[in-house]
Write a structure and sequence with these properties.
Blueprint lengths: L2 H7 L13 H12 L10 E6 L2 H10 L10 E8 L13 H18 L3 E2 L7 H8 L5 E10 L13 H4 L5
Antiparallel strand pairs: 1-2, 2-4, 3-4
Helix pairs in contact: 2-4, 3-5
The structure holds flavin mononucleotide (FMN).
Length: 168
């Protein structure tokens, strides 16, 4: 699969098979996350890989959806606002940095035949408590990961002419 094919193949998987994910595949995904760029190379992130059933059950409470409970693994992408680069006007690059790394994660997973879904509509406070996160560390996205138990849905995207504008 070339890069365009990988980006086309990725979709939000909202139902997973009860099948374990091979450690080699997780290792591959972790390396692709490690390769992600970040502002001033601060790498202001920690990714928690949650497989433990007890902790998974707690995470399923922070985003209470039946489909989410089918995930065999959930990766919690966290940003550290005390480590991230801040522009002169105060803008914090933490969310941008973590989003790039999560994009690496989801595309590497797709290449490995695994499904993922970005989840941001969760109870952040409860999640931080479940993982006993330090102050300044924010859980930014939950990424359930596993083998999809659902077919890809039709992509709905803006046209290229709506997205790109040539300025002369
Ligand atoms: C930042 C972000 C947050 C998202 N949060 C959620 C979420 O909380 N729950 C969910 O089911 N999907 C969530 N999604 C998935 C989007 O709904 C999905 O990516 C979008 O509809 C495009 O569909 P596709 O991923 O299948 O291409 C999120 C996606 C992004 C990028």
């Amino acid at each position: 699969m070339n890069f365009l094919e990988i980006t086309n193949k990725r979709f939000s998987v909202r139902k997973f098979q009860a099948k374990d994910v091979e450690q080699e595949k997780l290792d591959y995904i972790m390396q692709s996350v490690q390769n992600a760029p970040s502002a001033c190379n601060k790498q202001p992130w920690t990714f928690y890989i949650v497989k433990n059933k007890e902790l998974l059950a707690k995470l399923f409470e922070v985003y209470n959806r039946d489909w989410f409970r089918t995930a065999p693994i959930c990766i919690v992408a966290c940003g550290n606002h005390a480590q991230s680069w801040h522009r002169g006007d105060g803008k914090d690059s933490c969310d941008i940095d973590v989003s790039i790394a999560v994009t690496h994660l989801t595309l590497a997973a797709t290449e490995q035949g695994l499904g993922t879904c970005w989840v941001c509509n969760f109870d952040v406070k409860k999640c931080a408590e479940s993982l006993e996160l330090e102050e300044n560390v924010e859980p930014i996205a939950l990424i359930p990961i596993g083998y999809a138990d659902v077919e890809a849905s039709e992509k709905s995207r803006k046209s290229l002419s709506e997205i790109f504008v040539e300025k002369f």
